[in-house]
Specification:
Helix 8 (216-228) crosses helix 14. The protein is α/β, with parallel strands linked by helices. It is globular and about 80 Å long. It folds into three domains: 1-35; 39-187, no CATH class; 214-422, Rossmann fold (3-Layer(aba) Sandwich), CATH 3.40.50. The N and C termini lie far apart (72 Å). Strand 2 (106-109), helix 4 (129-132) and strand 3 form a beta-alpha-beta unit. The chain has helices spanning 2-35, 39-63, 86-102, 129-132, 141-144, 161-174, 195-211, 216-228, 253-263, 290-297, 301-314, 330-341, 344-349, 376-386, 397-407; strands at 72-74, 106-109, 135-137, 152-155, 179-182, 243-247, 320-324, 359-362, 389-392, 420-422. The structure holds 2-acetamido-2-deoxy-beta-D-glucopyranose. 2-acetamido-2-deoxy-beta-D-glucopyranose binds next to helix 10. Residues 283, 289, 291-292, 295 line the site of 2-acetamido-2-deoxy-beta-D-glucopyranose. It comes from Rhodocollybia butyracea. The chain crosses the membrane at residues 12-31. This is O-fucosyltransferase family protein.
Length: 423
């Protein structure tokens, strides 16, 4: 008897050791990879960028042999941002590309720089249009715009914001030098919410429709997400549930909102476009009133529900809600929203014609594979761009990015401002 139980004990220990060993192996080899950036992919993409640019430059020589030589511009971009500012960064890069095209110059694009990353990341891993349409990477600067050449103009445009944009286009077009290197930024953080920024919009909207393209990495994950969460890929598609997206900003945003209230600031960037001025959830924002700013910047859950109710009345066939968020603090609020929005009684009480929401999903449920976390901002933006309805936060740069990409719309998004609510 004793020997059998001893044997059993021994084999149990043996199994336990093997399990522990396999677990360690798993966490070392696989789980660790999940959060690490895909550096080998980035290296390959950098090479591809070089190749594409080289081909493009060669094709220019053939076409433009008799005409003027091709001209270039390098702008002064923001540097070393943290991951969360990617939306600001991307909007700035798109605007600079647009500006370069308007100035008839080839855009010299810079890699993505994040504080938390050791190396610079290739822009084409995130945004593809910017890197493929009359653009070359900044690794070509030495070759195209050598430091000692008299054919390189280092310029500082020293004007107030309203004239800055127009004057820069003028300079880009008129200057004879092959290269222009701008030593000061053209766009500051308030530009897009100013009348000068708004006057840039109609042409930028066309730019977005024509040149904006995600990387294949972002698009692959988005595609997988639509399948995995059973959401509709395109407005006109018949598969999957039509859905609305809510952009939820919680956690640390509360502090920022308090500062914004003190400074009496209005909505940010493209969220201030006249085309969507009627999209703001009632009561209208009054920046001079701190309570009003907090209501819009850090809305209560009941205010958020009100926005969802209104859109659910407009489009009762939408029975799926996808919530984009980037912090753990949102989880309890998501759970509260889910409980309320899936309640039959509540749906009856609020007169939803087809009953409560069937599906509530969120950013945390996107089926990322190992090494894909760097793409999460792009995935969230694209999920929101494709949604039939978008409910965003007027004080958020990410919301501004989504608004611009929706209004810039192609066949995917309707570009209808009624389909946007700003909290
Ligand atoms: C400030 O805004 C809040 C919320 O919208 C409103 O209830 C209050 O009356 C406003 N105060 C003033 C002085 O306008």
């Amino acid at each position: 008897m004793i020997t059998t139980s001893y044997h059993r004990f021994r084999s149990l220990v043996f199994v336990a050791i093997i399990v522990a060993f396999l677990y360690l192996l798993y966490s070392k080899l696989i789980a660790n990879n999940t959060s690490g950036p895909p550096y080998s992919l980035y290296a390959a993409l950098k090479k591809q960028e070089q190749k594409t640019a080289r081909k493009f430059l060669e094709s220019l020589q053939l076409i433009e042999a008799q005409k003027d030589n091709p001209k270039f511009v390098l702008f002064r971009q923001q540097e070393g941002l943290d991951f969360g500012s990617q939306a600001c960064y991307a909007q700035e890069i798109l605007l600079y590309h647009h500006l370069a095209l308007q100035g008839n110059r080839i855009f010299i694009y810079q890699p993505f720089e994040w504080k938390s990353r050791k190396e610079q990341l290739p822009l084409s891993a995130f945004l593809l249009g910017v890197t493929q349409e009359r653009a070359v990477p900044s690794s070509f600067v030495e070759e195209l715009c050598p430091k000692t050449s008299i054919d390189v103009a280092r310029l500082k445009v020293d004007l107030s914001q309203p004239e800055m944009w127009k004057s820069t286009i003028n300079t880009l077009q008129k200057r004879k030098e092959t290269c222009i290197i701008m030593s000061n930024p053209i766009i500051d953080s308030n530009f897009l919410s100013s009348p000068a920024g708004h006057s840039v919009w109609p042409l930028f909207q066309k730019y977005v429709a024509r040149y904006f393209r995600w990387s294949t990495q972002v698009l692959d994950i988005v595609d997988r997400t639509h399948t995995h969460l059973d959401l509709r890929r395109h407005f006109y598609s018949l598969e999957g549930e039509p859905y609305m997206v809510l952009h939820l900003r919680r956690g640390d945003f509360h502090k920022q909102c308090k500062t914004i209230a003190q400074q009496q600031l209005g909505f940010t960037k493209w969220n201030t476009l006249p085309a969507i001025s009627s999209a703001t959830l009632f009561p209208r924002l009054n920046p001079a009133n701190a309570t009003s700013v907090m209501d819009h910047c850090y809305p209560s859950l009941s205010r958020i529900m009100e926005a969802i109710d209104q859109q659910a009345h407009r489009k009762p066939h939408i029975r799926a809600l996808h919530i984009i968020h980037d912090d753990a603090a949102s989880v309890t609020d998501i759970w509260k929203l889910e409980t309320a929005l899936k309640s039959k009684q509540r749906a009856e009480l609020y007169g939803w014609p087809y009953g409560p929401m069937k599906s509530i999903t969120h950013s945390g449920m996107v089926p990322y594979q190992a090494n894909e976390q760097d793409f999460s901002v792009g995935v969230d933006v694209e999920m929101a761009r494709r949604a039939e309805v978008f409910i965003g936060n007027g004080y958020s740069s990410l919301t501004s990015y989504i608004v611009a990409m929706r209004l810039g719309g192609d066949v995917v998004a309707s570009g209808i401002s009624d389909d946007i609510t700003l909290l």
